[in-house]
Amino acid sequence: MPTFRLVRRSLTALGISAVLTVGIAGAADATPPGIPSAATAKSNLATLTVAPDGTLDGYSREKFPHWIDQGNSCNTREVVLKRDGIGVTTGADCAPTGGKWVSPYDGATWTAASDIDIDHVVPLADAWRTGAAKWTTAQRQAFANDLTGPQLIAVTDNVNQQKGDKSPDAWKPPLTGYWCTYARMWVGSKYKYKLTINSAEKTALTSMLGRC
After folding, report:
1. Which of 123, 131, 135, 197 yields a CA-CA distance of 20 to 30 A from 62?
2. pTM for the complete prediction?
3. Nearest Cα to 36, choosing from 199, 143, 192, 185?
């Protein structure tokens, strides 16, 4: 039986506070495809090239065209919102009109799509620093809209903003129980796209996979 606690989320723009119920022990519902097993992730981590991160010279999010059209009037964000949500209903334009989302990073449950960000598990800026600067625009677009790998996931918006472009040595999901899965997703994406990792990142990932 999951336990719950109350978390007060400040909505400063509205000058009010909202209280939401967070399931601490509940199972997360957002599950991207292609998450490697712990054993595979550990094996893949050992093969990743360890190198210092490159610079952000020349980087911009516009060089990773994202939320592209996926057919049926849906863009990538809308596809992930429907995939990772529970009982999601949509209008003719594919925008959600109902449903709920459980963010696995912090356990929060939301009923408004505006409270949800689609996180790039390996942030676009991190990808740029670790190999994507040399990619074509088409390759960066494929990475930023990947619906077949563990690269996109629906999470609480302000938690995603706290993460920013940090790698696991600098940021981990607030729920420690999700660290194993997060590390598996991170390694899976870096391995799929042949991106490098730095030594601190590898140490953090090794530790997180040790929880699996």
Report:
1. 197
2. 0.86
3. 185
